[in-house]
Amino acid sequence: MSVGEIRVPINSDQDIVLARQKGRLLAAEAGFSAVDSTLIATAISELARNIVSYAKKGEIILQPLHNSHRTGISIVACDSGPGIPDIHLALRDGFSTSGSLGLGLPGVRRLVDEFQIVSSTGQGTVVKVTKWHQEQHER
Amino acid sequence: MEVPILKQGEFLIATIQAALSDADLEQLRLALVQRVVRFRSRAVIVDVTAMDVMDSFASRTLREIALMIRLRGAETVIVGIQPEVAFAMVQLGLTLEGVATALDLEEGLDYLNQKFKTIN
Lengths: 139, 120
What we know:
The complex is a heterodimer.
Chain A: E1 6-10, H1 13-29, H2 34-55, E2 58-66, E3 71-79, H3 87-90, H4 104-111, E4 114-120, E5 124-132, H5 134-138
Antiparallel strand pairs in A: 1-2, 2-3, 3-5, 4-5
Chain B: E1 5-8, E2 11-15, H1 22-39, E3 43-47, H2 56-71, E4 75-79, H3 83-92, E5 100-102, H4 105-119
Parallel strand pairs in B: 2-3, 3-4, 4-5
Antiparallel strand pairs in B: 1-2
Helix pairs in contact in B: 1-2
């Protein structure tokens, strides 16, 4: 386990609330603005919800990031669920297989700065997103 | 965490007081629809000032509440969406289209009073 890492097991809809609260706290500690902390908490909520809806259980791993020129937060959502057969389709606005609005992944991608997804059918899904401090990120 | 629902004349006011799980939101949806029927309410105000995150599920549930209540012939107003929450919702692509919104409880009540005054 690396320094400052927070792991939140996701097994039910209650855990979605817990994960996003921990994420918001971590974001505030890392100096993120109220707007960015809300974007981070919302992204965590969506990722955790995907775990509950599709894989039933998994984990959210939150990690503050510091390097010489910027700080940020990394969010990893991983599960051993059914996986996503067609990632390109899942990243398209309006696509859903669980009767939701189908905005999950494309929406999350808009909330963060970096977005990576690895998924294989029958083995699970890992989504890794990063949000950087806005000031340092844009200048 | 159950959401208290207050009867205020012909209106119902549901004030969300803490972060809600999916199950809590579904419970609120059921409770509101049942009470609109029981009290023959003309409108419902859902105060979301205390909600720090409005994700796709919360947004969809609020929209469903408004649609169900409309089928009963009553109106729904969502009040108190925080600026950060509104920012995140739009980025996420959630618009609550077709649902009336107001700045806060007071404005929501004004809106409904105006609306029903013109009808009466």
